[in-house]
């Protein structure tokens, strides 16, 4: 079991550019989550997939954000027309079916918008 | 609105000391998880507690879930420098998606 992986680990982009992040969950985990963490804060929920279906989106996820999980395996998070306020650590987590919902996090993608 | 309050926010102690950090809420959670996070990395799951009053031990770490499932504590015995990190509690409020609500964390520094 290789754990949750995320790519890239770091991304620096200029304001107005589009960025895409990838998350590969632990195999056989059917639930996948995206969170955002800013300095001094705990992670905040963005969106949730069960298999390929996106079942919940936070109000934090503006129209510039879109997430997909096309085959129920890896997921992508795209941010269009990035703003400086989008600078944060983007975390992906996965969770197995059943159980109390324990979530296993990846190493995160650190986004800096200049 | 911060649903989970963690205290203290910062804690600096000497190696060998004991400590307790707290996670409190006015909301009931179906489960509560504790994580440790190091700078630039994702949170690492330490424990999940589900039953009110439950106590779990992980080596020198003892986790307790409150009887009413609204609060939790983490006690570390004989802290070591390797325990340094940000300790986060996160609650799941039921339903089918188990999305987590996190506290701001307790930043622990254990000095040699």
Detailed description of the structure:
The complex is a heterodimer of chains A (114) and B (112). By secondary structure, chain A is mainly β. Chain A has strands at residues 5-7, 10-13, 19-24, 31-37, 44-50, 53-57, 65-68, 75-79, 88-95, 104-105, 109-113. Helices cover 0% and strands 49% of the residues of chain A. In chain A, the strands form 2 sheets. In chain A, strands 2, 4, 5, 6, 9, 10 and 11 form a 7-stranded mixed sheet that branches. With 112 residues, chain B is mainly β. Chain B has strands at residues 5-7, 10-14, 19-24, 31-37, 44-49, 55-58, 61-65, 71-76, 85-92, 100-102, 106-111.
Give a brief description.
Chain A has 114 residues and is mainly β. Chain A has no helices and 11 strands.
- Mean pLDDT over the residues of chain A: 94
- H/E series of chain B: EEEEEEEEEEE
Measure the end-to-end span of chain A. 37 Å
Number of strands of chain B: 11
Beta-strand proportion of chain B: over 45%
The helix/strand order of chain A is EEEEEEEEEEE
Helix-strand category of chain B? mainly beta
The number of helices of chain B is 0
Q: End-to-end distance of chain B, in Å?
A: 37 Å
Q: Tell me about the biggest sheet of chain B?
A: 6 strands, mixed
Mean pLDDT of chain B: 93
Low-confidence stretches of chain A: none
Radius of gyration of chain B: 13 Å
Overall 3D shape of chain B: globular
Number of distinct beta strands of chain A: 11
Q: What is the percent of helical residues of chain A?
A: under 10%
List low-pLDDT spans of chain B: none
* Rg of chain A, nearest Å: 13 Å
Largest interface: A-B, 28 and 26 residues
How many helices of chain A does DSSP assign?
0
Name the shape of chain A in a single word. globular
């Amino acid at each position: 079991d290789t754990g949750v992986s995320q790519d890239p680990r770091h991304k620096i982009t200029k304001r107005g550019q589009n960025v895409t992040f990838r998350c590969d969950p632990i195999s056989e985990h059917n639930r996948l989550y995206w969170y955002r963490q800013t300095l001094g804060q705990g992670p905040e929920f963005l969106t949730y997939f069960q298999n390929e279906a996106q079942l919940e989106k936070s109000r934090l996820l503006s129209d510039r954000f879109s997430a997909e999980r096309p085959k129920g395996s890896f997921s992508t998070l795209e941010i269009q027309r990035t703003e400086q306020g989008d600078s944060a650590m983007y975390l992906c987590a996965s969770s197995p079916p059943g159980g109390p919902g324990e979530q296993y996090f990846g190493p995160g993608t650190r986004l800096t918008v200049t | 609105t911060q649903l989970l309050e963690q205290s203290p926010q910062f804690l600096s102690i000497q190696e060998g000391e004991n400590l307790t950090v707290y996670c409190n809420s006015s909301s009931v959670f179906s489960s509560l998880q504790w994580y440790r996070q190091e700078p630039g990395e994702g949170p690492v799951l330490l424990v999940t507690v589900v039953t009110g009053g439950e106590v779990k031990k992980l080596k020198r770490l003892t986790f307790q879930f409150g009887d009413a499932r609204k609060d939790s504590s983490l006690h570390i015995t004989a802290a070591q420098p390797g325990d340094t990190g940000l300790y986060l509690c996160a609650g799941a409020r039921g339903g089918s998606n188990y999305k987590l609500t996190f506290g701001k964390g307790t930043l622990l520094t254990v000095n040699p």
